[in-house]
Amino acid sequence: MIWDFGGVLTTSPFEAFTRFETERGLPADIIRRTNAANHLENAWAKFERAEVDIETFDALFAAESLALGAEVRGRDVLPLLQGDLRPDMVEALKRIKAQFKTGCITNNLPANAIGSRSGRTLYVAEVMALFDHVIESAKIGLRKPDPRIYKLMVETLKVDPNNCVYLDDLGVNLKPARDMGMTTIKVVSADQAISELEAATGLVLR
Questions:
Q1: Which of 85, 158, 176, 193 has the fewest beta carbons closer than 10 A?
Q2: Boundary residue ending a domain (36, 60, 81)
Q3: pLDDT value at 6 more than 70
């Protein structure tokens, strides 16, 4: 059982993006559109692979968003990423861990790119400790949807992709896993994801 982290075990940042855009009078979805444009080599991709520092990311993101209609500083977007942990998904993970190998593939940012919230960092670390193996994009210089990052996970866990389930909230990240033979679950809500996990595993997860 292989999991994404943000938007799966935590709430999606998309609602925070929308609030920010509304409060600043920005075009709708400017942040998501900037993230999606040239998504393999844009500022976001480079930062998640730790190829640029925060100052460079800030300037690159501003230029990319301006080209799409409105300047948004990269630094202003980073605090919006800290979603709240979903206790029901964490409980499902704990029950699954008792029966299956578990892994996490997360596109994340270099250490200290986002300030910590009181108590949250420790709780996140406790959740991460539930996995048999965690792959962080900023530590290895690869990010989803690069097929190599999924291959690295199955090799490390010593599992057959055809026997794996992969969860992510982004369709673009599910495709490489599906192409490898994994069963995929697109996480739209915690309730929906847990129902699909129960069907896939035969376990009671709530």
A1: 158
A2: 81
A3: yes
Is residue 41 located within the same domain as residue 76? yes
Alpha helices by DSSP H, 83-146 = 87-97, 120-128, 137-140
Same domain for 197 and 147, yes or no, is: yes
Co-location of 70 and 156 in the same domain: no
Q: 146 and 77 in one domain?
A: no
Where in the sequence is the domain holding 35, given as residue range(s)? Answer: 14-81
1/58 Cα distance (integer angstroms):
35
134: which 2 tokens?
């965690």
* Domain boundary pick from 49, 66, 81: 81
pLDDT tens string 89-129: 999 999 999 999 999 999 999 876 766 554 567 678 899 99
Contacts 24+ apart (CB under 8 A), 44-52: 45/143, 47/74, 47/109, 47/110, 47/113, 47/138, 48/107, 48/108, 48/109, 48/137, 48/138, 48/143, 49/137, 49/138, 49/141, 49/142, 49/143, 50/110, 50/137, 50/138, 50/139, 50/141, 51/141
Torsion of CA 54, 113, 50, 7, to 10 degrees: -120
